[in-house]
Amino acid sequence: MKYFHVVILCISLFSCKNNEQQLSNSIMNSKIVVAHRGASGYLPEHTMEAKAMAYAMQPDYIEQDLVLSKDNVPVVIHDIHLDDVTNVAKLFPDRKRKDGRYYVIDFTFEEIQQLKVYERFDPKTGTQFYPKRFPKGKGNFRLHSLQQEIELIQGLNHTTGSTIGIYPEIKDPEFHHKEGKDIAKITLEILSAYGYTTKEDKCVFQCFDAKELERVRKELNSNLFLVQLIEFPEETKQLQHFATYADGIGPWYKQIVDKKIDGQWQFTSLVDDAHELGLKVHTYTLRADQLGDFGSFEEHINTVLKDAKVDGCFTDFPDKVLKVLQ
Questions:
Q1: What is the pLDDT of residues 53-105, one digit of tens each?
Q2: Among 36, 81, 144, 176, which one carries the catalytic annotation?
Q3: Is the torsion defined by CA of 150, 157, 204, 273 positive or negative?
Q4: What kind and span of H or E run contains 151?
Q5: Catalytic annotation on 176?
Q6: What is the distance between the alpha carbons of residues 11 and 18, in angstroms, rounded to a whole number?
Q7: Measuring CA to CA, which of 62, 181, 244, 274 is 20 to 30 A from 229?
Q8: Does residue 282 have an active-site annotation?
Q9: Contact 118, 144 (CB under 8 A)
């Protein structure tokens, strides 16, 4: 009888451990992975090539940062400036403003398509920001519009049977307003034309400007899934207000992962506070070549996605994150 009881106990312990592992796997597999500017760890950010490579990695979403051109075309580019990712200074040397910068909004989309896109660099020194990434000046990469990228992703969804979503961000809406342009309204009209109108349409709309994102919900009457991006520490105290119009928040991971004590990472209350208000948490940005205090990229992924209990992440290396999750 003792032997029988020991066997039963061992089976019970194994079953319990197995169930815990299955639960852990289920939780990790439910995490949202967003290809940050495409597969930007491998190819110049926000190029069609980077988006196609990201698509092949099968993330949940691919991100599009948006800035308006002179003729109101939403251009997929991270900044309102052109000179840190293109050869604009060489092709249009006389088109810079008094501050020495070249602005997307000063060029027509036709002019913008003439530019070559490079790996991100310092426009003053020419030094590549991530030295181990795609060699600066190599290849023949170009900028493109939101419409062009949507058609690429929707076309690939059609031919492959996948359902990869888009994750657009309007950049610096206040700057656009001062220039007499409404980037939110223009972007929403394009999204609607391509079938993105509700929370079920695999489109997450994000912005750092809280006033503008609230306007998107309440004045422009968008029913999309809205994520309020968070940059500054004081913004983490405004979750209750964010919850009145947004469906989620997008904080920097360092606003979640605090410090290490006796070999164990400590966390702020941000994720729990957000979850109590029904807000999802999609953190930015996990980079295999920018680990900070983490010993490995795998530790970074597990700490943020598993231990910190966030719902998803932005990453320049979607394949590496997905490999850990799977």
A1: 999 999 999 999 999 999 999 999 999 999 999 999 999 999 999 999 999 99
A2: 36
A3: negative
A4: helix 146-160
A5: no
A6: 10
A7: 181
A8: no
A9: no
